[in-house]
Queue: 4 jobs
Job 1
Amino acid sequence: MKKIFITMILLVMYTYVSLSAVMGAEIVDIDCNEYDIVAKAYFTYNNTVVRLNDNKIRYFWWTGREFLLYDAKTNELKQSTDAENWTLIDIDFDLKNRISLLYTPVIRFCGDKYIVYDAYFEPSADPVIRGNEISKQSIYIMDSNFNLIGSYTFEDPVTDFEYINGVYYLETSRYFMDENDKLKRTSQVYTSSDTVNWDIDNVLQGVPKYNGIKNYIMPNNELVNYSSNLYRFEWNDIHISNNNLESTKVEFETPPACYYKVVDDLYVTYQNGAQEKSFQASLDGVYFIEILYPDYDGALRDCHWWKDKLIFRTSDKIFEYDISEIRNILNQKCPIDTPYIKLNNSILGFETPPVIEDGSTLVPIRFLFEQMGAQVDWEQATRTATISQNNTTVSFTIDDPTAFVNGAPATMTVPARLINGKTMVPLRFLSENLGYTVDWNEGSRTAIIE
C-alpha cells in the first residue's frame, strides 16, 4: 500500500516576550464579511437560509467539489456551486436518513468518491462527557452520483480523516479522564487505498495534514494542559516532513493550537471559546501570521472551509474571510522560500520568520540563543543586545555593522535589524563566534547549527 511516512506540525501564536516588546506572530487586520445569526437558530448566506441544529451547522457542507444542503423539513438534499442556486439530488431515501441522523455529519469528496462520517467526537469536552455513549461508528462511501457503494464500521468514534495523494487516513479515539482529572485518549490510525479495506497503521501517531504546497504536518496524539472549562488543550509534540522524507520535530516559541484545519492551500489554527481575539494562518505550518477577528459577543464556536472562503462562527455571528487575500499576505510576510533554522535536530518555529539580507540570514535573537542555552540581555536605551555563553560575550547594536566579541570590534556583513518588534541578527556571525558551525542545505533551504 502506498504510504506517507510523516510526523509533522501546527501551532497557535499567542504572546512571547521579545527583546524589546511583548509580541506574537505578526498581527494582520483583514476585512471580513459579517452575517448575523438570528435567534441563534439560522443565518442567510448567499441568499440561502442555513439553519443551526443543536447549536451546530449540521446540514450545510462544502465537500471540496460543491456545496450541499439538507432540508430537514422536506427531507431533501440539494447541491450548488455557489451556495445560491440549488439542484435537487436523487439519493436513496434510507441513505439520506442515515446521514441526517448523524450528530455532526461531514461529507467530503475525496478522489472520485464521497466520504460521510460523524465529526461528533472532535477533541473537546464532549467526548469526555459523552464518550461512553457511542462506541462503534460507521462511515459511508458514495460514488460521484451519490449512490452508496459501501460502508465500514470502526470500533471507536472517528476523530480525524484526510485524503492525501491517493491514500485515505482515518483516526479513531476514545477519550477519558484519568485519576488526576487529566484528559487522556487512546487512538488508532487506519489507512486505505480504496475505502473498502482498512489497515491499522502502527507507525503514524495521528492523521497527517497536507495543503498541497509544502510540509506534511501532524501532532503527536498526546494532549496536554487540557481545561474542560475553557475547552482548551495543547499538543505535546509536533513534527514536519518535506517531500515524504524523515520527519523533524518543530520547537515553537508558543504552544500549538487546539484546533487546526487545511483550508484550501492554507494551514489554519485557532481556539474555540470566549474572548478569542485571533486565528493563525500559514503556507508551510512553520511560520504564521495572526489575523484579528472583529469584536463579537459570546464564544467562538467553529471554523469551516466554504469554497474560496474561510468561515468562523461565533455565538451570534458568521465571519467570512477571503482565502486569496490571506494567501497574498502570507506570500508577502511568510514566503514559501523562507529559510528554516535547525538546532539540536529540531526546526525552530519563530514567531517572526528569518529574513535574508544581502546573502545573510537574519533570525530572531532571543528564541534561538535561549534554545542554545545562551544568556541574552537587552539595553533599551542604546538598543544593544549582549549574548553570553561559555566565556564568550558578543554585543551589537541595531543597524550598526560593528559588533564586539569579548570587547574586540568585529564587522558584520549585515547589521542587526528590528523587525516586527523582534531583534534580528546575522545567524552565521553570531553562531560561529559562540563556537558553533553553520551549514546550509540548499535543497530544503535550511541552516543547520551544530
Job 2
Amino acid sequence: MDLLSVIRRWHFRQKIPIREIKRRTGLSRNTIRKYLRSDVVEPSFKVPLRPSKLDPFADKLTAWLRVESKKSRKQKRTAKQLHADLVKLGYDGSYNRVAAFARRWRTELQYEHQTSGRGTFVPLVFPPGEAFQFDWSEDYAVLGGKPTKLQVAHTKLAHSRAFIVRAYLLQTHEMLFDALTQAFRVLGGVPQRGIFDNMRTAVDKIGTGKARQVNARFAAMASHYLFETDFCNPASGWEKGQVEKNVQDARRRLWQPMPSFRDLAELNAWLEEQCIAQWGEIQHGVMPGTVADVHAEEVSCLMPLGRPFDGFVEQIKRVLCRQPASSPSTATAIRCLLPSRTGRSACGSTRIALSLWPKARSCANIPGSSTDPITSRDAQSMTGGIIWR
C-alpha cells in the first residue's frame, strides 16, 4: 500500500513518467498503468484457499474453545495447552496455526455477542498521569526451601501500562500501604486517581451505585499521597481490565516455573528487576514504542512521591487476666502497644509489646503512674505464662 501511494504521488503530483517509475520501482509498465488507470488506493490480493494440517482437527478445536469460553478465567486453557492436547491426538502442525484459529474464533464470538446486544464495551482511554489500577492475586514461591502461598500486589499505570509486582504473606493494611509506597517509588510518582476493587482493607461498606464507606486508614493514606479513589462496581473486573490482564500475564512471565529464594526480600528485589526489564520488551500496543518508551514520557505528568506514608497506629487497651486457681482474686492490667509502621512489618508479623501492672483498688497503679512494672518472672507466675512475638 505504501508503494502504491508513492507511485500515485510521483505520477499525478510530480509528473514523473511511467518509464522513470519503472526504473525506480522495478515494476512492469503494465502493472504501473493498471494501478494508475483503475484509481486503486489500496491494492487487494486474492488469497487462494490452501489445505491446512489443522483442518481434520478444526471441529475438535472448536468444541474445546466453546467449552473453555464458559469456564472461569483462571480455569481456561491457554492456546499453548490446546496445542499440546492436539499434538497428543496426532496433530503435527505449528502452534501459530492453532493460536490464529483460536483468535479468529474468539473474534467471531465477540462479534456475535455484540450484534445480538450482549457484551458491548466502550474502550477506556487514559491521559498521561491520570490513573493507576491495583489488584491482589495469589501465587506460590519457594522461600527458604518451602513452598509458600503469597499475596501478590499488582500496580499498573493506565496510560503507559508500566507495572510493578510485589509479594507479601498477608493482605493487611501494612502490606497494602507498603505495596503502594514501593509502587510509586518504582513508577516515578503518584497519578491523579487510583482504581481499586472493593477489598476489605479499603471499603468498609458498599452502598448503592458508587457510594462507598471508605476505611479510615485507607482514606488517610489516599489523602497523604493526594490521589482520588475510584472503586469498581461489584463483579465488574473489566473496569480495571489492565491490571486484571497483568495478573494473568505475570503468572506466565514470573511465577512459572515457581521461583525460589531465601526470603521475601530477595524475591521482591528480583520481581522489581524483572518488571523493569520487561517494560523494555513489551510493546505498548496502542502507542508507538515499548512500555518503557511511553513510561519515560508519562513520568513528567506524575506527582513526586515525597515523604512515605506512616501508617502507625497506637492503641492502649486495658485487659484483665485472671491468675491461676491458687489466687483467683488477683488480676493484671496489661498495656498493649500494637505498632504497625508501613514497610517495617512487610514480612506479615506484628510485634506486640506488653507491660504488666498488678491491679490495685485505686487508679494509682495503672500505666502512666509512678509505680514500677512488675518483673517478667513475677508476671509469668501471675498469668501462667506470656508469649512474646
Job 3
Amino acid sequence: MEVIVHDPKSQNAQEELQINAAKIYADFILDYINRLPYPVEQKCALMKSVCEQCARLIVTP
C-alpha cells in the first residue's frame, strides 16, 4: 500500500489541522470512556481527571 501525505503549506492550515486532530482525539476519548462498564459517577470523575490533565499541558504564550 502506498500512502501520499500532503502537509499544510500555510500556518493557518497547519493550525486548522491541529485543531481538527485534537477534536477527533477528544471524541475518541469521550467515546472510549462512555463505553466503559462503570457507573455514570465514575465515568464523570474519569472525564474530569482527563480534563484536568489536559489543562495542565496547555501552554499559553
Job 4
Amino acid sequence: MRRSSLTAAGVALAVAAYGTLDAFDMVPGVLTIDHDPSAPAIARTVQPSDSAAGGAGGSGSSPGSSPSAVAPQPPVVDPSAAALPAARTSGVTTAGLARALGGPLADPALGPSVGLAVRTGAGGAVYGKGEGVEHTPASSLKLLTASVVVDTLGADTRLPTTVVRSAPAAGTGGATATPTLTLVAGGDTLLGTGASAPGRIAGHAGLQTLADQVAKALGTTKRVTLAVDTSLAAGPDYAPTWDPAFLAEGIVGKVAPIGLGTDLVAVGTPGVSDPVDRASEAFVAALARRGVTVIGEVRRATAPAGATTVGSVESAPVADQLAVALQRSDNALTEALARLAYRRVTPAPGRATSFAEVATWVRGRLAAQGYDLADARMADVCGLSPGSRVSARLLADALVRGSTGASPGLARVVADLPVAGLSGTLAERFVSGGSVAAAGVARAKTGTLTGVSSLAGTVVTADGELLVYALLADQVPSATGTLAARSALDDVVATLARCGCRG
C-alpha cells in the first residue's frame, strides 16, 4: 500500500507545533536538540537545555539555566517502541533511481564534487554516484564515531559519577581530621545541578542527589576538603586543529570527562572555560545546601586507593547520550564519549590522550568491525577539523548496520536521528516546496562546514519501503552557499521519498 502523502494542512500543523525549536544548522557543526514527535509518549526525554538552537557545535540558548526550567518537549523516539520499517524485498531499481535522481543531483548548488550511496533497508546497493570517492563529511562523520562508541561501551551502559572519602593521613588528627572527598569523573558531561531526573538525559544524574548521599554518609562531619579526579579520560580539552574562535562563537565546547548538561554550547554564546570547574563548583554548592562546607580550593587529584565510596549517581544510557550528541551535532560531547570508550578498552589512568590518538583508534575499530575504509581519514571524531575524508559508501554501510539490526546499539542510534521537518537539526528543513514529501519520513545526520554540506540517514518511500542514503557535497559554490546546497540536498531526499522507482 502506498504511503499517503502529507497534506498541506498537516505540514502547517507540524510547523506550528515545532516552529519554536530553532534548528539553524548554519555554520560548521550545527546543532539542535529536540524530541521526535512521531513516537508515543515514553519516560525517556532529551532536555539538555531550555530551547533548541543550532550552530557549529552548540545547542539552545540559556546554557546556564537550571534543568528545572526546561520547557516541556515531545518525547524522543524509542526504537524499542517505534522501530524502523522492517526490511523487505525491494521493488526499487537502479534504472528507476537514475531517472528520478538525475535532475536533483545536477543542481549546480551542489557543486562538482558529489557522492551519493543508496541502499535498501536490507543493505542491498541500488544506486551510487561517486559513492566510493572520499569527501569531506563535516558532522556526518559522527555516525562512524557513534558506531564505535555504542559497540565499545554498550548501548545500555550508564556512566557513574562517584564521591569517595579518604582515610585521614597519619599524624593529621585521626578521626578528628578534616576528611578529604574526591569527586571521581566517570564520563558523564550531562550532569544536572539539582536532584537526579530519571525522565531526562541531561540531568538524569543530579549533583544534588549525589550531595545528599554524601551528607548522609558524613553524619555529623560538616567540614571537608574536595578534590576532583579526571584521570579516567584525561587529555587536552581543545583540539589543536580547531580554530580558537570556535569556542567563543559557541561552535564547540571544551572536552572533559565531567560537566553540566546546561553547559552544552549554544551558537553565539561562548563555551565555558572549564567544564570540570563548573561541575565541581555546582557540587560544592549542593553540599552547602546540606550544611557541608568545603574548605580551601578544590584541587585536581587521583582518588587514593582504598578510599570509601560515600555517594554515586549514574547517567542515562550511552545510546541516549549519543542521541543528544547526534541531534545537536555536539562536537565536544561526541569527542568526550569517544575518548571515554578508548580509555575503557585501553586504560591508562592519568595519561593525557590526544584527539589524534582517539581518531586513530576509532578508525582502527571501524576496520575491525568490517568496514571497508579504503583511503578514509579522520582528523578528529566529530568532523570539525580539516582533513577528514570518507566516502558516501562508508557512511551508508554504517547506517545499514543500524537499519538491519546487525548492530542493535547502532539501530537505536539510527532511530534517534533527527526527523525531517520535526526534530533536531532537521526541524526547520523539509517544511516547504517539494521537499515536504520527506517531512516525517526521513531521518538524517546533517553536516555543514564552509563549502561542505551532507545528509546521511534513512527515508521511507511512497511505497512504504525503507531506503538508506548518504549524500556528500564538498565543493559547494560560494556564490550560492550553504542555504542553496541544503535545499538541493533536501530535494534529493524528497525525491527518494516520492519515488516508487521500480523500472
